[in-house]
Amino acid sequence: MIVRGGSVVTPEGIIQADLAVEDGRISAIGPERSGPAPEVDARGLTVLPGVIDVHVHFNEPGRTGWEGAATGSQALAAGGGTVFFDMPLNSSPCTVSGASFHVKRNILERVSFTDFGLWGGIVPGNCDELEELAECGVIGFKAFMADSGLPEFPRADDLTLYEGMREAARFGLPVAVHAENHELVRPRGKGTGVRDYLASRPVVAEVEAIRRAALLAGEAGARLHIVHVSSGRGVAAALEARARGVDISIETCAHYLYFTEEDMVRMGAVAKCAPPLRAAAERDGLWAAVLGGDVDMVASDHSPAPLEMKRDENFFKVWGGVAGVQSTLAVLLCGPSGTDDRFSSSVCRPPVGSLRVGYPPLARVAALTAGNPARRFGIANKGKLAVGYDADFTLVDLRAHSTVTRESLFQRHGLSPYVGATFRGVVRRTLLRGETILADGKIVGEARGKMVTHATTGIHA
Fold it and tell me: Cβ contacts of residue 76 below 8 Å, gap of 6+?
């Protein structure tokens, strides 16, 4: 196949070129190719590497009524994605043993429309299971430093986390942590509203937990990955550890870049997440870190739930989680300037003078969504448009705009805080290993996802 005449975003820059595909891999990028191969017309479109979303909860198996890998992977493809890493919860059973790993892998290989990797879990009492999980091919291990919300996936106390990190270091695998201080995350009074919830999870809880996790990782010799950093101060804490020599990577999520805490107050349960959305100043600090190269990757932390779990007069009892797997690339292409004036109080439009308002460089977007994830987690032959790499890419029309509607979402439930938002760029086609899986807003073909496994080289090793 030849992808004809697109603006190809390569590590070396953006070039107007044809992209040739043979046997599922990129065989050439350059001037006009000739031959009998079928063609895809990419003239006027931008060719970006397929999004690698390192943080999703597709809840397969056990809670597919919340999402499922079939619908979740279709939504990822609709957003320009080709690979996801599924977290060890909220599936049932949780992925904390070799047996639970095989159950999940077998299902995902049957139903996923994109490639996938699997996180294993660190919980009290499963340290002896980590070696088998490593042999199974987990991407890394995930631990919660605060209550996860699921009794079957309890938080890792400091001893559990430290011992898990030592084991992970032995296998050369990263440890991802949900970094919030368990003792600091609690109600500050008797109120049960949205603002009471926001007050119960202050930025200091995140900052302290990042510093403690970094200390433990440094002592254990482990590779640390901080998931969903929600604040500029959280990034600064991670950078301090990196400067001391800790091997640490930083992930944030699109919703922390797009919304603020006032949006949670306005929208309610659909925007509830942990850590919560932050004040505009923290959001602006995150954007500065993203654009400046201090944040390594942007994920979705897609964590949906049925409508009935999003309804309760007590906001603390509402199930938290933002459904956004389809919108990560859109938020980044939009950048800190935003595009939707209807959300003028909440869209990523920083105060005058705090940031240079404009679209992020496409090379930076590609690094945040594909290059850095593939490099950090050692995913061979993925993450960039280069000869010899898998032909995983998406064709985006940057001249067009799209508005998110319930009908445009491929996920199981139409609940998303992005509904009504208008973004720059429309995904016209997504290809996985050279095969079209989405075209003109429709899923093409059957599920064909394959599992990807780890290597042990890190971007900050």
Answer: 51, 53, 56, 82, 84, 113, 114, 325, 326
Rama region for 378: left / alpha / beta (φ>0; ψ in -120 to 50; rest): left
Q: Are 362 and 11 in contact (CB under 8 A)?
A: no
Backbone angles phi, psi at 131, to 5 degrees: -65, -45
CB 79 within 8 A of CB 325: yes
**What is the bridge-based pairing of β-strands 422-432 and 393-403?**
antiparallel
Query: What is the tens place of the pLDDT at every residue in 368-387?
Result: 999 999 999 999 999 999 99
CA distance 135 to 435: 30
- Residue 143, beta-bridge partner list: 177
CB contact at 8 A, 273 and 206: no
The residue assigned the tokens 């349960």 is: 269
Other C-beta atoms closer than 10 Å to the C-beta of 237 total: 26
**Nearby residues of 324 by Cβ (< 8 Å), 6 or more positions away:** 253, 254, 255, 300, 301, 302, 416, 417, 418
Q: Count Cβ atoms within 10 A of the Cβ of residue 325 and give its class: 0-12 exposed, 13-18 middle, 19 or more buried.
A: buried
Fold (CATH) for 50-380+411-421: TIM Barrel (3.20.20)
Condensed to tens digits (0 to 9), the pLDDT of residues 35-79 reads 778 899 999 999 999 999 999 999 999 999 999 999 999 999 999
The pTM of this model reads 0.95
Token representation of residue 122: 């660190």
Judge contact between 152 and 173, C-beta under 8 A: no
